[in-house]
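Hello Y.,

Per our agreement to keep a running log of every chain we model this quarter, I'm adding this entry. I've kept the format consistent with earlier entries: sequence first, then predicted structure.
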Amino acid sequence: MAVASGRVQLVTIRERSLTTARWRVLWVALGFAFVALLALVRIAYLGMADHGLRGTSLEEALLPPRGEITDRNGVPLARAFPAYALWFNPTALGDDGAPLVRDPATVAAKLKAIFPDLDQKAVAAQFAAGKQGYIRRRVLPEEANRVQEIGELALEMPMEQDRHYPQGSMAAHVLGYVAADGHGRVGMEQVFDKHLSNPATRGTPIALSIDSRVQGALEDELRRGMKLVQAQGGAGIVLDVDTGEVLALASLPEFDPNKIDARGEKLMFNRVTNQVYELGSTFKPLSIAAAIDAGVVRNLGRRWDATPVKVGRFTISDSHSLGADLNVIETLIHSSNTVTARVVDELGPERMRRTMIDLGMNERPYIELPAKGFPIWPGEKWPRLRSMTVGYGHGIAVTPLHLASAYAAMVNGGIWRPATLKKLGPGEAPKGRRVFKASTSSRMRQLLRAIAVYGTGRNADAHGYRVGGKTGSAEKPGAHGYQKSALVSTFAAAFPMDRPRYVVIAMLDEPRGTLASSYQRTAAWNAAPIVGRLVPRIGPLIGVRPDDTRDVDISDIKPLIPEANK
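Predicted structure for the entry above:
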């Protein structure tokens, strides 16, 4: 009996254990089923919601949100950069109507101590109104630490991907900026917006033709020149004469693409590509080149009448008497309006107009930037007087970029090419079109060099760099005619003249006569010295070293230059 009783007890224990195991399995199964049910509910919710999970491509996961822009040597000019932003969240402490611990004015004052340029009243008003939004789009790490020390939870600092310009305001008018919507504005940020934002292409940086070293030097010298003569603005360009590549392009005052504010928006206008000017006597070499090319000027020693020119009721005269007659070389050296007008008169309006068209002066400048000014063009039929005034740079208004491309054609052998901000590889330079004969270009190199050695361009004659160029000082037009007190001073140059490689344009808007310019307002005293200081700075950087043993040969024209024979 005892054995049977034991067996029954053992069976009972086994049945209980089996039942317990079955219940455990059931509970585990129910647990998995519950988890699966939650997952299904979550999937259904995400499927119905607008902010469901989306697939992320490899490019989106690994690449920055916007591609990089570099200069021609790979130096970054614009790149994506993780940065803090300062955001006001009025619900951070709950919905009790008190978003801040301290009063709004006190918190705004503390932020003003961290960010001196902050609009304290506007921020205090934002706090008082409980209006959420950005207080600042970019906050440095050390600034973020100081904001944290204020101790206000409503001052949040999310980490965002921001567009950063490591060189600050340098080349701002070339680069442009990226707006709050993530798209480029104004400069190459706008031109290459699709490439820079497309995941398939943004991993490849955009290399510009700009050389950041040359760009920095150009801006520095222009800024210095502006301050010395208290000019209201300046513009400059350095252009490769054989390819059309722009190594530097500056418009001053500049804006800071890292911080777009009301002042910055007013300074976005590009004086180099968008503003048109009457550039005065810088046109005279172009007119003489056209006359040489057409055979109107064959003998450089020919004497031309230099007395005032009367056309109808108008009289063309020089700023001061240059004598009874001049040859063409003296005309350029002393910048005579009267002789230039007579040369152009003999050339004729149609041939003069054709040359200007071939140099692109009748259309917007060729460059990738979106803002390009349309010239003030005299029209289809040029009367005799208009042709003569265009010959010395009046009655036609173009951008400094127009002038740079024209000078490049005049000195590079006669080929006009469009300017570009893209870095070109070997063999990628456009073919261009012939404007001047190669022999004419060779002669103009001599004449431009003579101006820098013996004429109005002497302040640009950087020792050893064989600079050649022409000054231009033009009165600005106003509501009641030309303003004698407002000049645009320009120096258009190329170097080295024995084998020209670069054109340099320096322009000042409304310079004043100061001690630094010997109380003169003309280009010979304010724009030319800018080029004279700039060329030695950039020459060695771009492959042109000073050499006193080389120069363009002007021995055949020296006998015709009185200053050379004194």
